[in-house]
Write a structure and sequence with these properties.
Blueprint: H1 3-41, E1 42-43, E2 46-47, H2 50-57, H3 59-91, H4 98-105, H5 113-124, H6 129-137, H7 149-159, H8 162-173, H9 177-185, H10 190-201, H11 203-218, H12 222-227, H13 235-243, H14 249-276, H15 297-324, H16 329-334, H17 345-352, H18 354-387, H19 392-396, H20 403-406, H21 409-419, H22 438-460, H23 464-472, H24 477-504, H25 509-514, H26 522-529, H27 536-561, H28 564-577
Antiparallel strand pairs: 1-2
């Protein structure tokens, strides 16, 4: 065999992979977005801005845009006040029962999205325990008092503190006690230390929290749908409504583009903020932060009272969902909690009733596909990028995978509908109409940016000498990849699979656009069962879904952020040793 033929055979896998990546980027990322833009600004093949003028003339659309900005601005204030307070109450100040408080505040990490909104409806909704208590005292109170802007703001204020419990909490734990102690030794009061030393040290993280909270409020979907009522509309639910009507999909496209532009602006602000970020600690050796006792007696009592009040607000919906999952349907309607109404039938239905367990199986399969697929694909892409670091064309292939990070998932979902509502040669004759593949692939697309970023970071810590030694010893590139590289990256890859799986298991945003009526996902069913008109059995099943999801979320958090992560590392170490 000639040397030219051998070189061709060696280059063939590389060429095929490049072709696949180019097809993937154009077909599943660029073309859907391009279709949204075309549908927004063209009419019968000519440039047309009629859809933009329709938006500007639509009171409903303008009101939704205004409501989204009002929610985003207000949420930025309320959520960050609560988030900063709970982090400092558990990590900076020495409060009685701080471990219990921390557990209560951390429920938001496993109790979010649709199930969180459903839990708040259980407590404050028309048949909620708090509503029943209030109406027994104030007979003239409207049972539907918990809806509209105040209800959405209340729910999201506590729901969005999950960012604070992950990022700000770690930042406070990483504070250098040297500078705090130095301030105290110079005679500064606790308030002055907080104002002049601690908060400036946390400024980059706090600014990021502000921007991320604003972004979350701007694109809010679940809370406005479930507790917003008929009067409070925001951009995302309106996009969903317009997209379901073929005649108004151009309006949905314009709103999606508008939301995407806001997201891009916010991402630019975050990036600039990160580059300007600086920290006050310059010690070569940091001292672990020591919790501070509140010296002022009145302030100490006040902080304790607020901390435990917030603890009740956080844990009450969480606990009520668990309790109600074991109650009979009649007890759920009446709101009477007693051992006489205890039952396991709700859980049995999940095991024996196809209508109950089918959505869970569908979501599990779709989430597993997207989680595993995104990690596997991005691992291959990162490996390919590192192997061709001097090829500018190949290096440019990385950037399109970050596009879904710049745009709301609603725009991606709408793009799939507009681009592939008819059979397309790009999909080998397939279309999105009646196809089950659309939703898991859309899940995968929106997971790619974060997955790529984490895997690329992990790859930098990989010892390249191990791979070179394997190749020198005669192992093929394929064998080296699966026997050397994958085991070394295994803890990161498993953690990403767990996070991605967890994030899409109860997804509603993309599911609302792309699910097939014969195969509804868990998010769709939970939303339908939470409707006031849903029957009691559906509501009971909702609580079971919620408990199962919270259990899965707790396991994921343990594996990724808790001691379970050590187990993943040891498992990978044993694999490498073997």
């Amino acid at each position: 065999m000639s040397e030219r033929t051998l070189n061709w055979q060696r280059s063939l896998p590389r060429i095929l992979f490049i072709v696949f990546i180019l097809w993937f980027i154009f077909t599943l990322i660029l073309n859907p977005i391009f279709s949204v833009i075309v549908d927004s600004f063209t009419q019968s093949g000519t440039l047309d801005f009629t859809s933009v003028s329709k938006i500007l003339q639509s009171d409903r659309a303008l009101k939704a845009i205004r409501n989204s900005f009002i929610l985003a601005v207000t949420l930025t204030i309320t959520c960050n006040i609560v988030g900063i307070f709970i982090v400092f109450a558990t990590e900076y100040f020495d409060l009685k029962g701080s471990r219990l408080l921390s557990l209560g505040y951390m429920t938001v990490l496993i109790f979010g999205g649709l199930i969180l909104n459903n839990g708040y409806l259980l407590v404050y909704g028309e048949d909620g325990i708090v509503t029943r208590f209030l109406t027994s005292i104030f007979t003239g109170l409207d049972p539907n008092w918990f809806e509209g802007f105040p209800a959405v703001l209340f729910v999201m204020t506590f729901a969005c503190t999950n960012l604070h419990m992950l990022f700000l909490r770690n930042a406070v734990r990483g504070l250098d006690y040297n500078i705090i102690e130095a301030g105290q030794n110079l005679g500064s009061s606790q308030g002055e230390v907080l104002k002049k030393i601690v908060l400036p040290s946390l400024k980059p993280v706090l600014l990021t929290m502000v921007i991320m909270t604003f972004q979350t409020g701007l694109g809010a979907m679940a809370a406005p749908l479930m507790v917003g009522g008929r009067e409070f509309n925001t951009i995302s639910p309106l996009i969903l409504t317009f997209s379901q009507r073929p005649g108004s999909r151009d309006l949905a496209a314009v709103l999606a583009i508008l939301l995407g532009l806001f997201q891009i602006i916010l991402l630019v602000i975050i990036t600039v903020n990160e580059r300007r970020g600086n920290y006050l600690s310059v010690s070569k050796t940091k001292i672990v932060l020591k919790k501070q006792k509140i010296n002022h007696p009145v302030m100490n009592i006040l902080v304790h009272l607020i901390a435990y009040l917030l603890f009740i607000i956080y844990t009450l919906p969480f606990v009520m969902v668990i309790i109600m999952s074991f109650m009979k349907s009649e007890a759920i309607k009446s709101g009477v909690i007693s051992f006489a109404n205890f039952t396991l039938e709700n859980y049995q239905k999940i095991l024996v009733d196809a209508g109950a367990y089918q959505p869970f199986l569908t979501s599990t399969l779709f989430s597993a596909f997207s989680a595993i697929g995104s990690v596997l694909l991005m691992t291959l892409v990162v490996h390919f990028l590192f192997k061709n670091q001097h090829n500018r064309f190949i290096q440019w292939l990385e950037y399109p995978f970050f596009i879904p990070w710049l745009l709301p998932s609603l725009l991606i979902g709408l793009g799939f509908i507009l681009a592939y509502s008819k059979p397309s040669w790009l999909l080998f004759g397939e279309s999105t109409i009646g196809s089950l593949w659309t939703l898991p692939v859309a899940y995968l697309i929106v997971l790619l940016p974060s997955t790529l970023r984490y895997i690329k970071s992990a790859y930098y810590s990989f010892d390249q000498n191990l791979e070179e030694a394997s190749l020198i010893l005669g192992a093929s590139s394929f064998r080296t990849f699966f026997k050397v590289l994958i085991p070394c990256l295994l803890p990161t890859l498993l953690a990403l699979i767990a996070i991605n799986f967890n994030g899409k298991l109860a997804d509603y945003d993309l599911s609302a656009f792309l699910y097939q009526p014969n195969s509804p996902t868990l998010g769709i069913v939970i939303r339908q069962n939470a409707d006031p008109q849903a029957n009691l059995d559906a509501k009971a099943i909702n609580f079971v879904y919620s408990v199962i999801l919270m259990g899965i979320n707790a396991i994921v958090m343990y594996l990724v952020y808790g001691k379970g992560n050590d187990w993943l590392i040891r498992a990978a170490g044993r694999r490498r040793g073997k």
